[in-house]
Amino acid sequence: MKQFDKAALRKEVRARKKKFSTEELIEQSRPIIEHVLGHPRLKESKTVLLYNSLPDEVYTHDLIQQLHTDGKTVLLPVVISDTEMELRLYHGSEAFETSTYGILEPTGEAFTDFSSIDFALIPGMAFDAQRNRLGRGKGYYDRFLPLLTNAYKLGICFPFQFLPSIPTEETDIKVDECISILQCIL
Ligand code: ADP
Ligand code: MG
Question: Coiled-coil annotation: which residues (predicted)?
């Protein structure tokens, strides 16, 4: 039943996303990313997990480059099987290949010192005010986030992805905070 509810919400969010072009979504991403850059937990962090955005996600490509240039240790997730992700060090934009999902992924060695990660930026199909997260339905982050014992988990999403309530199961992992553009304006 819950899986059905989640599927219906994913469908609703996909329909909402379709109302905007990729360029409009990049534009809507700017204030969100500005807010992320000003976040005290990011400022004081040394090792950060980011994600490489797909066209329908909050745009992170410039953020990745900027934090790398700032001297932070930047990690990106790479999908390695139907249930697992691994983390890889980002060494700069030249060391990328396109995955089967169309995501730009860093080549190179896996990063496994999970407890050293201070800050994690988490994408989602939707978030709610109870800090619940709805993903794309594979549970990658639910399996992965428990390993990040010291990371501040910051979810980001567009305002139309911020929902009144998301159905959850025991395995769903909350974020510590979620930023959408509405909170940036307030
Ligand atoms: P998402 O988090 O991507 O929205 P779901 O929360 O619906 O996806 O999870 C997808 C599937 O993965 C579900 O069948 C869920 O029970 C399973 N799952 C999630 N976390 C775990 C876990 N830690 N161990 C085993 N299965 C898990
Ligand atoms: Mg989940």
Answer: none
Give 177's strand partners: 154
Tell me if residue 21 falls in helix, strand or coil: coil
Average pLDDT of every residue of the chain: 92
Q: Answer whether residue 79 is part of any domain.
A: yes
**pLDDT, tens digit, for every residue of 1-14?**
567 699 999 999 99
Q: Which range of residues forms the domain containing residue 87?
A: 6-185
What's the domain count of the chain?
1
Q: How far apart (Å, rounded) are the C-alpha atoms in residues 115 and 147?
A: 7
- pLDDT at residue 184 in the model: 47
* Pocket flag, ligand 1, residue 137 (CB < 6 Å): yes
The reply to whether ligand 1 has any atom less than 6 angstroms from the CB of 2 is no
Q: Report the C-alpha gap between 151 and 111 in whole angstroms.
A: 15
Check which CATH number belongs to the domain holding 69 and give it.
3.40.50.10420
